[in-house]
Design a protein that fits this description.
- Helices cover 46% and strands 11% of the residues.
- By secondary structure, it is an alpha/beta fold.
- Strands 1, 2, 3, 4, 5, 6, 7, 8 and 9 form a nine-stranded mixed β-sheet that branches.
- A hairpin with a 7-residue loop joins strand 6 and strand 7.
- Helix 3 runs antiparallel to helix 14 and helix 11 runs antiparallel to helix 14.
């Protein structure tokens, strides 16, 4: 059974809140997580929780919640106001003038994160948990700057996928802070990270969310047949947004880019998973789709199989962004801005209060009140899933995702194989 955790900056508190409800419910069913897959902040949560797998579930989730409740902005990024802002300005000028040693790498300085990761995650215990088969695999996704392709860094007790036609490159390694920091190196905000081990994967990497924000495919490739996916926006389709009447702001453009990278990918991957459940797996009632099976085996892939899933996400689009705006106004509005000048600068760059500003603030608002609220709604949404699915798992394509109506009996084998071929590179 696997857990898939996407990227989203400070929104990662929502993921841990949801898992603090789901993991005890799994334990009550006699089940436990064997594969952890994450991107960006999801990679931080995945490695942290996997490193705690030797503990009882309540201790495991309690430790992860404590980590988030104690987290502060200074654990992730260096100060922006004062000398930090001057250094950024100097790098911008130096970059424009091509001055050696003064090149612009990012708007923010995440150097504190390296020390924080070593404090949050016991890397030796993480490897020990894999060696003892308490965890089968931990996978974090980063994007290779040289090739532009997603790379999955995996610590595993079993074989890792090796398919030459796979768009994802799987690399076996002992996970360390450099792999997780690379996965979380959000372009423009954070600089790329150089990975030095293993030797064959050396190079510079950026945030895995630019190519694979919600690593469902790696979890399936690593052998799971049940998967928990945590989302930070609703999985079902959302209404199209109206174009702004005025010229779009920086926040409008950036928010749309982030939606495309971090939200739409997840919804598309889940719809594909649901379609596979409906059309491609071997169905005992209608017989196996032999062409699909033969095609998969010929390319060295295992046959498609039905995947049960649990999906937890906010029920309303933009809920986390609106929460970020509300908390920001309550905590830093007006004269309260002196509480943290960095947040004031970030909000000023993003412009006036808009939906887009709230979305972007939610990635960077490492504030204890916001974090606690995210944990609370993550727990709320996990409970909602369990109320709707008292047996925990679901595999019905039409139950939780907006796929439209379909008649499985009308789908011919040829239709199925053509649909499969159109997705075979994914």
């Amino acid at each position: 059974m696997g857990v898939v955790l996407p990227g989203g900056g400070a929104r990662g508190a929502y993921e841990v809140g949801a898992l603090s409800i789901l993991l005890p419910a799994l334990q009550a069913r006699g089940e436990r997580v064997s594969v952890w897959c994450g991107t960006s902040v999801g990679a931080i949560n995945a490695t942290a929780l996997a490193s705690l797998s030797h503990l009882e579930v309540k201790q495991q989730t309690g430790a992860a919640l404590a980590l988030w409740r104690e987290l502060r902005k200074s654990d992730v990024i260096a100060p922006i106001a004062g000398s930090g802002g001057l250094r950024t300005l100097a790098r911008l000028v130096g970059h424009g003038l091509r001055i050696p040693g003064l090149r612009f790498a990012s708007l923010l300085d995440p150097s504190p994160l390296a020390h924080s990761l070593d404090r949050w995650i016991d890397w030796k215990q993480l490897s020990h948990n894999v060696d003892r088969d308490l965890v089968q695999a931990i996978c974090v996704i980063a994007t290779s700057v040289s090739s532009g392709d997603p790379v999955a860094f995996v610590t595993s007790s079993t074989d890792i996928p090796r398919h030459r036609d796979d768009p994802i490159r799987y690399v076996r390694t002992r996970l360390r802070g450099e792999h997780v920091r690379a996965s979380a190196a959000i372009p423009m905000l954070f600089p790329t990270v150089e990975i030095t081990t293993p030797r064959g994967a050396r190079g510079h990497y950026a945030d895995g969310g630019t190519r694979l924000n919600s690593p469902i495919k790696p979890a399936l490739d690593l052998g799971v047949d049940r998967v928990i996916v945590i989302g930070l926006e609703p999985f079902a389709g959302t209404p199209a947004r109206l174009a702004p009447a005025a010229r779009p702001s920086f926040a409008d453009v950036a928010a749309n880019v982030l939606d495309g990278l971090l939200v739409d990918q997840v919804a598309n991957d889940l719809r594909r998973l649901a379609a596979i459940n409906s059309f491609f797996v071997e169905d005992t009632k209608r017989g196996p789709l032999t062409s699909t099976r033969a095609y998969r085996i010929a390319r060295g892939h295992r046959p498609y199989r039905p995947i049960s899933y649990a999906l937890v996400s906010p029920g309303r689009s933009g809920e986390i962004g609106r929460l970020a705006e509300t908390v920001f106004d309550r905590r830093y509005g007006g004269l309260r801005v002196i509480r943290d000048l960095d947040f004031a600068l970030i909000a000023g760059v993003l412009g006036g209060r808009t939906r887009a500003r709230g979305e972007l603030l939610s990635f960077l608002l490492f504030d204890p009140v916001f974090i606690e609220e995210l944990i609370k709604i993550g727990r709320r949404d996990a409970r909602r899933w369990l109320r709707r699915h008292p047996r925990f798992w679901c595999a019905d394509a039409a139950h939780d995702l907006s796929l439209g109506s379909y008649d499985p009996g009308a789908v011919t084998e040829q239709d199925a194989i053509e649909e499969f071929r159109s997705h075979r590179s994914r």
